Amino acid sequence: MRLDLAGVSAHIDARPIVHGVDLTAGPGEFVALVGPNGSGKSTLLRTVYRALRPSGGVVRLDGQDLWRMRPRQAARHRAVLPQHSQVGEGFSVAEVVAAGRHSHKRLLDRETSADRAVVITALERVGMDWAADRLMTTLSGGERQRVLLARALAQEAPLLVLDEPTNHLDVGSQLLLLDLIRSLGLTLLAALHDLDQAAAYADQIVVLRDGHVAGHGPPLEVLTPAFIEEVFGVRAHVGPHPITGRPHIAVASPSMTDQER
């Protein structure tokens, strides 16, 4: 699945938030959105998962205008792991994941054996099949996030949109989730706060500042120390990770002295 944003702008309460953004994610590519708080990352993602209609420009999936699709058709093309996802009390893990099958069914259709097989497979992919009968309220934050990812996978959509998927997770859970997401083979568009994680996992980086694209390209070409300081106001060291060899970014306060470092 190829995702193209051409000149996408967005307003909230008549206030312009995103201004003429161009962005492409090729099939199987991981594109990370980064930028300071309030730069428009979540707003831009909302235009992709159809929570906010663009005020200008177009969002295309494999050349088709996403906003001209019927809702169920759009849901079969893209799934979302939002920043804040409410799950009602009393639902089991399997019931939550089964909700991902709604886009493949008509209003009164019952669950089929094929649906149940998709749910089981999705839970296996995220390592949560052992918890199928557990209530969501009994799970840890990292476990809940993996279940919500399984729900998105149950849609069987080739594009996955993620808004700060590692938010509120401990560092081990963050890395496990990112490893899992990276291994899915889907086209990925994710807003990430952590520059080091974005550089390590994404194929392409898009930097937003004040709703505009301030930079885009491969991580090490975009996230230079000078650019990071200009956009984020922090000092940065960029180089290979001493353990993984992946791109690695370490940051420090601009007021920190060399001796303190």
Average pLDDT confidence is 91
SSE string: EEEHEEHEHHHEHEHEEHHEE
Q: List the total number of helices.
A: 9
Largest sheet: 6 strands, mixed
Oligomer: single chain
| Rg for CA atoms | 19 Å
Q: Please give the order of strands in the largest beta sheet.
A: 6-7-8-3-9-10
Share of residues in strands: 25-35%
Judging from the principal axes of the Cα atoms, what is the shape? globular
Helix-strand makeup class: alpha/beta
Indicate the low-confidence ranges by residue numbers: none
Which tags fit this structure?
globular; six-stranded mixed β-sheet; AAA+_ATPase; single chain; 9 helices; alpha/beta; 31% helix; ABC_transporter-like_ATP-bd; four-stranded antiparallel β-sheet; 261 residues; 12 strands
Task: Characterize the structure shown.
The structure is a single chain. 31% of the residues lie in helices and 28% in strands. The protein has 261 residues and is α/β, with parallel strands linked by helices. The chain has a six-stranded mixed sheet with strand order 6-7-8-3-9-10, sandwiched between helices. The chain has a four-stranded antiparallel sheet with strand order 2-1-4-5, covered by helices on one side. Helix 4 (113-125) crosses helix 5. Keywords: ATP-binding, Nucleotide-binding. GO terms for molecular function: ATP binding.
Quick description:
Residues 3-235 form the ABC transporter domain. The chain is an alpha/beta fold.
